């Protein structure tokens, strides 16, 4: 049914004046086409990871830069039971990926797969991806289907977004066929670690990383696919959230039970690995198999935007 401008305006005014629950719900859900995968998707959208969509993903060439959190996702992929449906994952331990950070075989995408390379903890580490997309002998920007990175703050005082966001925007502009996703910042837990050191919840990692995550969401929500790993590992399956307050602002931290090694850094419990791995597949399905998302299903917006 087509609604005339006069009646559409009347309906909008009614929403503003009466604020019925339906209007509020619409304002808190994702707009059509927005790809955002956080804890809600992990807990409510696993059904879209179908055999058909996994077969589609297996036809794609994807470049994924990370540190250790990439190993976590890779371990989930490796344990998928059916090799005919499991995405092909070229791990950082492959000789074709890296003996050091910039050794990435130019022919590594001779077949469809997900290539996970590990970048070093050096300034401007996000530029490895730009080299791989643009420079010889790789020039993968002309050959692959998607790229993304899991970035983090290190001891340098850089603001990642100041130089990384312009790179992302340039990839979108210069490689229109390439699907570019952005990841939020990883988080750590608090308390005594396995070395007896007290890790504060309001660490620079969690606070600066939390501010970066907010900038990712505010900048790219509704524009590029977002994988909110911060939300996934700070939220339990029952919906309760692991968080803290600093300077009147709420930040997230890794739920302690999601870390079993005791370093309080890595989300490595079986449940955490499952959450990150399922979320990663949901992201890929939404990017490459969107027609399989049930009609009428609308995921909530990130808390930051509500």
Structure summarized in a few sentences:
The protein has helices at residues 5-18, 21-27, 39-44, 51-57, 69-78, 127-134, 160-174, 204-220, 229-232, 270-288, and strands spanning 36-37, 61-66, 89-90, 113-118, 146-149, 179-180, 182-183, 191-192, 198-199, 226-227, 243-246, 249-252. Helix content is 35%, strand content 12%.
Task: Give an overview of the whole structure.
By secondary structure, the chain is an alpha/beta fold. It folds into 2 domains: 1-30, no CATH class; 32-185 and 203-231 and 273-305, Rossmann fold. It has helices at 5-18, 21-27, 39-44, 51-57, 69-78, 127-134, 160-174, 204-220, 229-232, 270-288; strands spanning 36-37, 61-66, 89-90, 113-118, 146-149, 179-180, 182-183, 191-192, 198-199, 226-227, 243-246, 249-252. The strands form 4 sheets. A 5-stranded parallel sheet has the order 3-4-2-5-6, sandwiched between helices. A hairpin with a 5-residue loop joins β8 and β9 (198-199). α4 (51-57) crosses α10 (270-288) and α5 (69-78) crosses α10 (270-288). The longest helix has 19 residues, at 270-288. Residues 1-27 have low confidence and may be disordered.
For the structure shown, list the relevant keywords.
5-stranded parallel β-sheet, alpha/beta, 10 helices, 306 residues, 3-stranded parallel β-sheet
CATH fold-level assignment of the largest domain: Rossmann fold
**What is the H/E order?**
HHEHHEHEEHEHEEEEHEHEEH
Beta-strand content bin: 5-15%
Helix/strand-derived category reads: alpha/beta
Number of strands: 12
Low-confidence stretches: 1-27
Could you give the distance between the termini? 30 Å
Helix coverage percent: 25-40%
CATH architecture designation of the largest domain: 3-Layer(aba) Sandwich
């Amino acid at each position: 049914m087509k609604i005339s401008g006069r009646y559409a305006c009347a309906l909008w005014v009614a929403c503003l004046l009466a604020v019925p629950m339906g209007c509020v719900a619409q304002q808190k859900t994702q707009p059509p086409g927005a790809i955002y995968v956080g804890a809600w998707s992990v807990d409510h959208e696993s059904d879209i990871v179908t055999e058909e969509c996994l077969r589609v993903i297996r036809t794609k060439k994807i470049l994924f830069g990370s540190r250790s959190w990439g190993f976590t996702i890779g371990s989930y992929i490796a344990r998928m039971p059916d090799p005919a449906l499991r995405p092909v994952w070229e791990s950082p331990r492959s000789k074709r990926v890296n003996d050091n950070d910039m050794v990435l075989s130019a022919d590594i995408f001779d077949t469809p797969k997900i290539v996970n390379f590990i970048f070093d903890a050096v300034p401007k580490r996000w530029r490895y991806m730009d080299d791989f997309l643009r420079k010889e002998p790789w020039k993968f920007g002309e050959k692959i289907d998607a790229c993304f990175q899991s970035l983090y703050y290190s001891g340098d005082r850089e603001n990642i977004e100041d130089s990384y966001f312009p790179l992302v925007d340039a990839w979108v502009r210069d490689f229109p066929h390439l699907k570019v996703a952005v990841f939020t910042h990883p988080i750590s837990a608090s308390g005594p670690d396995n070395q007896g050191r007290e890790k504060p919840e309001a660490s620079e990692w969690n606070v600066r990383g939390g501010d970066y995550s907010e900038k990712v969401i505010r900048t790219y929500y509704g524009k590029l696919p977002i994988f909110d790993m911060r939300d996934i590992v700070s939220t339990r399956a029952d919906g309760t959230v692991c968080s803290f307050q600093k300077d009147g602002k709420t930040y997230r931290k890794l739920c302690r039970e999601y870390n079993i090694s005791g370093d309080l850094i890595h989300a490595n419990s079986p449940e955490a690995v499952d959450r990150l791995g399922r979320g990663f597949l949901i992201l890929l399905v939404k990017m490459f198999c969107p027609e399989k998302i049930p009609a009428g299903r609308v995921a909530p917006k990130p808390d930051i935007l509500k």
